[in-house]
């Protein structure tokens, strides 16, 4: 004799009727195609980097040697030079940082053929921005 009386069965679960062709009718998503690896993905960022380096070095040289331009100035010229040097340096470094961000982004994009155009479009303006940073610095400083 069992210790506990048997429990009554719960109500049966009602389900939709079985249709064998239902599985065939369900939409199936195809796997997303991955673009093939781009063997030449490094070319555009490398050209942009190598073209931007001379302009960046020219800017660095100009910035480092420019305080010597006013070594023998009188007080009025020195004050005018000092007042214009800091904003010019800030603007030039901001433009140069933008060029660096564009180059880093062009290097960091996935090396797939689907982003080849974006990579080239990001690497192209960097040398021009580096040159623009130099030209802006030279124009903004009040040279003696």
Keywords:
single chain, 144 residues, mainly alpha, 5 helices, elongated
The radius of gyration over CA amounts to 33 Å
Poorly predicted runs are none
The SS-based structural class is mainly alpha
Share of residues in strands: under 5%
Largest sheet composition: none
Alpha plus pi helix count: 5
Shape, please?
elongated
Roughly what is the average pLDDT, rounded to an integer? 86
Number of strands: 0
N-end to C-end Cα span: 113 Å
SSE pattern: HHHHH
Name the helicity range. Answer: 55-70%
Structure description:
This protein has 144 residues and is mostly helical. It contains five helices and no strands. The chain has helices at 22-25, 43-65, 75-108, 116-123, 125-140. The chain is elongated, with a radius of gyration of 33 Å.
Summary, kept brief:
The chain is an all-alpha fold and 144 residues long. It has 5 helices and no strands.
Write the layout of secondary structure elements.
Elements: H1 22-25, H2 43-65, H3 75-108, H4 116-123, H5 125-140
Helix pairs in contact: 2-3, 2-4, 2-5, 3-4, 3-5
């Amino acid at each position: 004799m069992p210790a506990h009386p048997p429990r009554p069965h719960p109500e049966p679960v009602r389900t939709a009727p079985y249709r064998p062709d239902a599985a065939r009718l369900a939409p199936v998503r195809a796997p997303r195609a991955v673009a093939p690896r781009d063997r030449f993905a490094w070319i555009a960022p490398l050209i942009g980097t190598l073209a931007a380096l001379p302009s960046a070095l020219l800017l660095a040289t100009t910035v480092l040697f420019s305080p010597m331009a006013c070594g023998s100035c009188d007080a009025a010229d020195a004050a005018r030079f000092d007042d214009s040097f800091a904003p010019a340096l800030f603007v030039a470094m901001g433009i140069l940082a933008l060029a660096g961000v564009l180059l880093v982004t062009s290097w960091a994009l996935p090396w797939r053929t689907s982003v080849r155009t974006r990579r080239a479009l990001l690497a192209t303006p960097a040398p021009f921005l580096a040159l623009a940073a130099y030209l802006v610095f030279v124009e903004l400083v009040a040279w003696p």
